[in-house]
Amino acid sequence: MLGLSVRSFVRKVCANNAVQCYQLKYLAVSTRCNTLSRLNVRREKYTDASKYKGGKLAGQRQKAIASDNDQFPAEDDETLEERNNRAELIDDREYDTVASSAMHVTKQILNVQHVVIIQPYIKWGPRKNPTKPELLLQEAEALVRSLPRWNIELSMKIPVETLDKRQLFGSGKLDELKNIIQTRQESGTPLTCVFISKGTLTYSQKQTLEQAFRLPVMDRYSVVVQILRLHAVSMEAKLQVALAELPYIWSQVKDQEGSSKGSGRIFLSDSQRQMLQLRERKLRNELTAIRSHRELLRNRRRQKNFPVVAVVGYTNAGKTSLIKALTEEQSLQPRDQLFATLDVTAHAGLLPCKLEVLYMDTVGFMADIPTGLIECFVATLEDAMLADVIVHVQDMAHDNCTEQRAHVERTLGKLMHNGERSLSPERIINVGNKIDLVPDPTCLVIEREGDKQPDYGRLHLISSQTLVGVHELLLEVERRVLMVTGRQRIVIRVPMGGAEMAWLYKNGAVTETAADPDNAERLLVNVVITEAKLQQFRHLFIRKRN
Ligand SMILES: Nc1nc2c(ncn2[C@@H]2O[C@H](COP(=O)(O)OP(=O)(O)OP(=O)(O)O)[C@@H](O)[C@H]2O)c(=O)[nH]1
Ligand SMILES: [Mg+2]
Predict the structure, then answer these.
(1) Which helix (H) or strand (E) holds 84?
(2) What angle do CA 149, 219, 278 make, to 5 degrees?
(3) Greater confidence, 388 or 421?
């Protein structure tokens, strides 16, 4: 009889929604999401401290989130000596001398630069670039524009036979480029460096080009390092960037030693070599400490039982913007720059069913970045890979969207391969962002349907800026979170003012309460809860009563 009355309550509230019921004598109806949530689907801001006044539980949640985002280690855990050691590692003059000659990176990142961009591409043969040269050049320009005072004075794409020759360009092409640069300089353009948009240039390639152009030459590795240095805010990110620089320096030194005409420009003395080796050891030790701290935070998060949703994607796809749209957190600052986000940060959000989740903002992916450079950031991506649900954000307005998507999927596949969790399709939500910039977004859907992907691979079209599609996406996030974490929505009948109610608030997400129409002393509580917690509830309250 109790079950029936509860069913009729749910029927009344949920109108036409399919409701799955099961009778637990005292415990009542299970509704697999998508039901009462419609009554209360307002998105709520979840980082406004004023909301937590007086709410003990809420205060604890904020603390958990804050401690996740703290720079490592938390201020009060860190001794002055540790802090000084880390600062010294970042600010080391002897190292800076070596780094600036090997990479042309300087501490004065904010100095004005007048840049010539040259995008080499292989036009024919099996090693031909899969991406159009115009798109490669666009990405090179976006990299330079990510550095605030770097101006693009000239940009060109140049066909080459191979990228591995000792001389990147044939002598005719090199003369042609030299003349173009000289003419520009003679006409009064103050050029200060040449950016060759290739992952890493060998020492001899660089030397030949510098001699020809009489300007410092940079490759993608060194430009990306500049951007990373600029955007690294936390000590962890700074240490990671510092570590990322070392393989490049060693590779330049090695190249030079193998080169017959090494001019000794980056010749390293024994003491400099020792300094680099010691620096690498120290950086690795510090980062190992950070990793174990991350592990600790992860375990704390697990204990608190927050479902975690990682937001990943190509750099500049709109990951930070999407999290801002989902959580309405004003402090998040999306920027039209590559690698704007360098720290994995956690942001609390509320699903329509009122379940709290943590969204993890992550470092963006980019093609043609040497593995050594991105490897150092893998530690920060580990958290993302262990998330319950992964949202893959794609920039639908980008001409190279398909390639970007494939690159992220390949990288995710590799990361998962090394990790603890498999990349099962139900954990991934594909999101097509920036549709406000696409003239006819319906074409995108037709194209994707043509892929005959399973339902999980469906692309959710949204705009993080206009918020079109964001609410539907939120419902999908909810559906996946409940499915992957084994949570369910149920209605439980409990005595008014009893211990049951407090227990449910503590161990589940109570979404709604209503007076029981059949019994004035009872409440009907709508709660999202895991199977394990439900068993605990049965054990604690139902069996006891029997
Ligand atoms: N028009 C439009 N612009 C968007 C949208 N989403 C993001 N943007 C813009 O795209 C740029 C990059 O946004 P972010 O959110 O910083 O991108 P991200 O993926 O976090 O970038 P990284 O952290 O650098 O990897 C910013 O200028 C945003 O304002 C959208 O839906 N529409
Ligand atoms: Mg970002």
Answers:
(1) helix 80-90
(2) 95
(3) 388
Instruction: State pLDDT tens for residues 67-85.
Output: 444 433 343 455 677 777 7
pLDDT for res 445: 58
Measured in Å, residue 169 CA sits from the centre of ligand 1 at: 36
CA dist., res. 286 & res. 72, Å (int): 10
Q: Is omega for the bond preceding 73 within 30 degrees of 0, making it cis?
A: yes
| Atom number in ligand 1 closest to CA 466 | 31
pLDDT per position as a tens digit, 98-111: 887 777 666 565 67
DSSP state of 455: G
> How does DSSP assign 16-69, residue by residue?
TS---EEEETTEEEEE-SSSGGGGG--------GGGGTT-HHHHHHHHHHHHHH
Give the rounded percent of residues in the chain with a pLDDT score beyond 70: 71
Q: Give per-residue pLDDT as tens, 332-377.
A: 778 877 877 777 778 889 998 888 898 989 888 887 676 666 666 6
Residue list, ligand 1 pocket, CB within 6 Å: 313, 315-321, 334-341, 364, 433-434, 436-437, 463-465
Atom 11 of ligand 1 has which residue's CA nearest to it? 336
Beta bridge partners of 194: 116, 217
Q: Which atom of ligand 1 is nearest to the CA of 363?
A: 25
Q: Which atom of ligand 1 is nearest to the CA of 333?
A: 16
Interface predicted TM-score of the whole assembly (ipTM), two decimals:
0.99
Residue 489: CB atoms within 10 A of its CB come to 27
Mutate to test the pocket of ligand 1, among 464, 466, 468, 470 (most ligand atoms within 8 A of CB): 464
Q: Looking at residue 77, what is its pLDDT? A: 54
